[in-house]
Amino acid sequence: MVWLNYMPKLRCKYRAEFENKLTHSQTACYNASVIIDFHTHIVPPAMKEYRDELVHEDQCLGAFYADPKATMATAEELIASMDQDGIDMSVVVNMGWSSLELCRRTNDYIMDSIARYPDRLIGFCTVHPEWKEAAKEIERCAKGGMRGIGELMPHLQEFDLGNESLMAPIIEVAKNNNMIILTHSSEPVGHIYPGKGNVLPGMLYQFITNFPDATIVCAHWGGGLPFYALMPEVGRALENVYFDTAASPFLYKYDIFPHIAEIAGIDKILFGSDFPLITQQRIIKGLDQVEMPVENKQRMLGKNACEVLGLD
Ligand SMILES: [Zn+2]
């Protein structure tokens, strides 16, 4: 299996820093871990080149990349960053484009990238649920090796994630192809930022309870949804739901890591950066400052992702 062949080559400069602070037995334990970034974005080189024109043509591009300082990255730039920061594998999620053509072209680019880096990258495709071609496009991407659908961006693509009849065909094709759904999420309170949107815990909860058998990842800590896991019915509804840590430093204090682990369960948290918005090392360094058992850090950084993706 490709994954197992890759294991002996794992390397991480931050792992070495952790090891210096650990006892011998803990070091052995930490060495056994892997780091998987569950939330990264890449774009085709041509999109970078024609960025100035494209930002006016698509709401998603405009929301994220109208600011010239916002970084775009290709697959090669992601791999270079992973090598530098000691990331073993990354999940490349697409974005919420408004045109079928952009979806297809970016899906093609992600499929091409996972084919070129099969032991480093895992791909998720994108569609708009209202397109009649949506299920067919997901099937095409599944055949091309994609493992999930996302990042769904209902706020930019202007659809209701909580609409059961709209989402049912997407979930059906996802389940038939053993795919994971990853959706953008946002907080109902707090500061405003580009791309925040209205994918709030209420909408996410509706989506999750409509499709209890689907495997769903709510990005950006689910906009705070895991805090409600203390409500027994919400806790039960989260059985097949996970939360990624993408863009954490822009949203929460690092204390969120142990708090969500305690409230929703350590097995629910997937390390994600939102690269190239944030470097992987920034979140790993932040996590290093947090008081948590090493085993829990290992779970968040990679072991949980291995289980969700069926890599082990
Ligand atoms: Zn997002």
List the helices and strands and how they pair.
Elements: H1 2-6, H2 13-20, H3 24-31, E1 36-40, H4 45-49, H5 51-54, H6 59-65, H7 75-85, E2 89-92, H8 100-116, E3 121-125, H9 134-143, E4 148-152, H10 154-157, H11 164-176, E5 180-183, H12 201-210, E6 216-218, H13 232-237, E7 241-244, H14 248-251, H15 256-264, E8 269-270, H16 280-288, H17 294-309
Parallel strand pairs: 1-2, 2-3, 3-4, 4-5, 5-6, 6-7, 7-8
Helix pairs in contact: 2-3, 9-11
The structure holds zinc ion.
Zinc ion is lined by residues 151, 184, 219-220.
Sum up the structure in keywords.
47% helix, globular, binds zinc ion, 8-stranded parallel sheet, 312 residues, alpha/beta, TIM Barrel
Protein described:
By secondary structure, the protein is α/β, with parallel strands linked by helices. The chain has a single domain (36-278), classed as Metal-dependent hydrolases (TIM Barrel, Alpha-Beta Barrel), CATH 3.20.20.140. The protein is 47% helix and 10% strand. It contains 17 helices and eight strands. The protein has helices spanning 2-6, 13-20, 24-31, 45-49, 51-54, 59-65, 75-85, 100-116, 134-143, 154-157, 164-176, 201-210, 232-237, 248-251, 256-264, 280-288, 294-309, and strands spanning 36-40, 89-92, 121-125, 148-152, 180-183, 216-218, 241-244, 269-270. Strands 1-2-3-4-5-6-7-8 form an eight-stranded parallel β-sheet, with helices on both faces. Helix 2 (13-20) packs antiparallel against helix 3 and helix 9 runs parallel beside helix 11 (164-176). The longest helix is centred in the middle third of the chain and has 17 residues, at 100-116. Mean pLDDT is 89; it is low at 1-32. It binds zinc ion. Zinc ion binds at residues 151, 184, 219-220.
